[in-house]
What does this fold into?
Amino acid sequence: MPAKTLVAAVALSFASAVAGLNIILTNDDSWASANIRATFTALKADGHNVVLVGPAVQQSGRGGTFVLPTSNITAPGGEFGTIPVGAPFFGQDLQNQNLWYFNGTPAATAAFALDIIAPIHFGKPANQSVDLVVSGPNEGNNNGPFLYTLSGTIGAAYLSVERGFPAIALSAGNNTHRSFTTNTGAKTDPANLAAAVTAQLVTALARGVNTKKQRLLPLGVGISVNLPLFGPGNNCTAPRFVASRMTGGAIVSQLSLDPVTGFPVSANLVANGVNACLNGNCKLPGETIVSATCQTVVSVFSVDYDAPTVVAAPVQAHLGPLFRGQ
It folds into this structure.
């Protein structure tokens, strides 16, 4: 589609009520990625009221960085040519007013979706209307605590959890960055497979829950999901779900100097610190190992980063002299 047909000025029109959940859908790979558009379609098909608010351009690897726009869209324009240079810093698709872009980092985009777009779309403030924030599916896995801090997909999710909203971050094994226009609609397309698994998870989460009376997730809690590799060359189309934890086989980066160039290079290291099990069920398998197979791992996380009392107490006791009079 020509860029001029995609971008509209803000329209203060309210979406009609749709049975199902009120969902904010976002990501870090841009509003025009194949994964997010396929997921939008799948969630809508399940009867959810979905508004997509994604970054104007690719924002992968930004973590929870919070950067707001200070100008309108600059060169080279929106991702995959979807937004012309000079367009407003946020706007809609003219052909589908449930699709929005925002020229900020993923965490900032999530906040903009909750504070500005949700009242426009749902007709009420987010805390009175939004049942769930879905971030992703990302183009590539985000396994383990190290990637948790780096991923913009997860950054948008934990910003939402910090704001008090139930949120799910989803990351798919397929890391090809591609436009939604490349999706032919085939069920075997990796974007459509990831979307189907996402919709299945949302259905399971919502089953038996009356969101007018209770939350989908406890306050301060979110879910990080890593989907396996889909598509040509493998037969993974309907992976089973596995309860997992972030630690266990997780990696961090280890640096060395390249003997030829002299510049630092990074390699994966399964380090003790990142795999220390301090919280949760230590018997659950680590998501890094399991998601390498045809399985979808589901890890429940908390944004309360305080260490458990049994771990923190000896440290606090050792530092006791510093705390006298507290």
The chain has one domain: 3-248+279-323. The CA atoms of residues 124 and 289 lie 42 Å apart. The first strand starts at residue 22 and ends at 26.
